[in-house]
Known about the structure:
This protein is an alpha/beta fold. Helix content is 31%, strand content 11%. The protein has 14 helices and 14 strands. The termini are far apart.
Amino acid sequence: NSSSMFHVKDANDITKHYEDGKLSAGNAVALLDFMIENVYQSTPNVDVEPYACDVSGLVTLQCEDDDDDDDSDDSSDEAPDAPIRAVTLAGVFTPALWATNGVELTFDEASSFYTKDDFRQMKELGLTTVQLPIPVKIFASQDNEEEDASEWKDLLVDLLELISAHDMDAILLLDQGTSPSEDVPKAVEEAAIFAQDYNEDDDDVIIRALVLPATDNALLEAAKSAAPDLKVWIPTQGGDFKNLNTYFSKADGVSFEMSHTATVGDIASSSSAEDRSKLFYHETMSCIARAPLEYTQCYQKMPIVVTSGFDLAIDDCHLKDEESTNFQDYGQCDRFEETIHSPWWKNHRYSFAARQLYAYERGAGWSFATWKLWGDDDDSDSSDVLDQPEQLLALKNVVAAGIMPSLYDMDTPIEYPLLTNASSPVGLACLNPPENDFAMGDRTYAPTPAPPPPPPDCGNGWWNFTTSKCDYWIPPTPAPTPPCPVCTTTEAVIPVDCPPSVPLTAFANYAAVGTSETGSTTATTANHDTSSRPAGDNNVYHVAIVAFITGSVFSLILCLLVNRVIMGKNQKRNGYEEVPTTATDHGNYQA
């Protein structure tokens, strides 16, 4: 069998050679897969750079174990562990003034902070775990200064029982607090013993993990030596992922303390548009958090949980009134009231929550900042209005406001654009960028005006919109002027149409005037038929004609007589006298 040689420059060539019959369907798919693996899975230093494979949260880091063949073992049939979905009880054991109305709770206040109803609501929401920040001093053996340490430990036991009763587990997050450094190792050891003993007494693993107060091998050794069956996690922040397994090989997991409000660039803003662009920025960056989580699990072989930093705040305004913090005012808190009833802020906060939720579940799980704030009335429904900055860190308030996706449906794609009362899940939350509408916010552009009416038809010309008339290269022939109306009636009396200045024309139709032999005046008409006139009208016409002719003759005679008299007087005045003479005389006058 002879085989032909051909070149493949890109994926289009594979399609072309397949259509030409040079490649079978199976070979075309294999060749395309080979190209993709060598082009898209060839990122250098992927094993030492946590963000090497990041492309705006779109790329999944494929672990080497995922490439194993099915015949290696049957472990691939086991379902992966469900992600930890936790909430933190801030302010109960350790100070969190933003969560407790600016005051540190007394023991009695802390004991009444959380009730059975709170844990019932957590479970109904879909949470699996409760995270408890605990000061190491309550586990110290010597109670020199903390004589009430035992009662705080009793309160911890009460809360663990409530957690267990609602089919959830707990994470103990140790905090050094005010304890001297030299006392911390012993306190950590005592805390590990307490956790392991509690799990053994309960015949169930209620305390899922113990998180050390610092990334310290001495503390890790102390905890693991005292409680070998207890899972101990080490805390880490950004940049500490590369050598976790090398230096802390005995750790059972990683507690990732992240923050999106740590730098000036994260929180500073001085106008409404900058506030919105800041949220847009945090929406975009939240999906990138999946990269170090996947890297830690793939190459450090450690489960990693986001134990702090999951909230909907994009600034540090919840710390503004705390004197113990280093709050810097960059103008970021001056316009919070603009966000309270804003659909734009509600939609984008929902998007922010969905993106964080999707990214953090690429790791082993997450814990929200706190469940509720001190002073919430449990007898009434939580308000769906977020009118205080600290409410953005309380999961109970965030859920009531409708900006937290459901935890029960995480695989259905999120829909864009987001609606005001959206409850979309987050399966593909990071597939598309956030809506780029921060410049306008809730404002909209003015409605587009209706188009103007069409111009008049100018025939062979065009409509001039400046002069509002038709223009022509060759003006059209003007329309003829209609003639003036002419009166043609011969009636003597015309009541309406003919103007009053028109003379009576009835007499113009008479041809001659004469006197009969009998002495009566006769009027002869030419082409004037009076047969159609009424008798009374004909008599009027005849009388008028006779009177006119008689008056005219009389006037003529009178004029001749007057002229004769005047001429005779003029001759006498000049010295001449008329003397009758014979016909043979040669003159008629003498001096």
